[in-house]
Amino acid sequence: MDRTRREFLSVTAAAMTLSSALPAARAEGEAPPAQAAAPTGYAAPTEIKPIDIINLREIEPAAQKLIPAGGFGYISSAAGDEWTKRENEAAFKRVTIVPRYLTGYKDADRSTTLLGSKVSMPIIVSAMAQHGMAHVSAELGSAKGAGEAGALYTAGSLSNNTMEEIAQASGGAKWFQIYLPADRGVAAEILNRAKAAGYRAIILTIDTVVGSNRETDIRNHFRSPLPLGNFPGVSSAYAASPVKRDLDWKDVDFIQKTTGLPVLLKGVLSPEFAVAAVEHGCAGIQVSNHGGRQLDDVAASIAVLPRIADAVRGRATIIIDGGIRRGQDVFKALALGANAVAIGRPILYGLALGGWMGVKAVLQHLDGELEMTMRLAGVRTIAEISRRFVAPAVETSAAV
Ligand SMILES: Cc1cc2nc3c(=O)[nH]c(=O)nc-3n(C[C@H](O)[C@H](O)[C@H](O)COP(=O)(O)O)c2cc1C
Asked: In the prediction, which pLDDT does 223 show?
């Protein structure tokens, strides 16, 4: 056994002791510890084909018919009462769009630049563990689909394929999300691999220092049989305790110094924390509650975005995720201060329904709705989208 792997195993074994405080709770990747490399016995969908999407919400029940029940539960569910998950979507409906007419515009350009990467739409693939739950092509499929759509791809560290394979599969810009291993040597090795593979920024997920009460997974006794690509031979140990449990600002400095790449913090939910990230030199933040999968009863991400954007004052790139299911949602998020939105579950449903073609279809569908929204709202470029184009939904007056 080489030194790195030996250290890694001993660190994860020690960290497992910490995680035992919440035996039934799971973090991303902890829910599905690998049991064996192969055969897995997990019958993920296999078809690669174009899919027609009328309404993004409709692809969830369609994907449910194809994804094994345990895997579907893992993807679709959230923590506790799942209030935050529902609120993520519901809160978008409390923001209305204020259109501007007679502009003379005849098209809408959705291209933009995110931390130096030119992309064709302000819609990115959010970091997610274990795409093999949704389709046999796993991250190779989702990365190819994003590249084909001209969208930025975020590779999760708990992927079923290796980060190098994923980088090869994606023709477009890509960032790497990390759950920081406790051991600095192992962490540095992963970060350096990501940089060498061509990832242009590192996203540190900060909201997963312990697992959460995902009751669907607990009821399903869910354990993924799929191995993790980035940690061959140690997937089980890593999955038992993937993250450094006592993250602090020194870890952010460590990532910055080790890679020299822009660092984004994922899981920011308050203006104070966003300002601290800026002051620590972070290039960006991802306003996120992990799709409601970690701490239930935190606010919808769109609800906290305006105050965060006001506090950041353009000093960092702002990504937002959680409940984005419509082009109008993308428009509202940009109007309230985000530079781009990240999409979670619908990407995996598209992957299940059509492999890389399904992922491409999901991104193109949202982009198409964004184009329609921009045209109808009277906006020609992403830079033009501002608060002028949104207002709070008004309570109906009793006098009417
Ligand atoms: C199946 C699944 C796995 C996820 N794994 C990760 C992960 O490994 N790291 C991470 O930072 N976020 C992870 N997330 C959270 C997403 O990045 C994102 O915050 C969330 O899904 C956005 O909400 P949405 O699904 O409503 O679009 C995961 C989400 C899902 C659905």
From this structure: 86
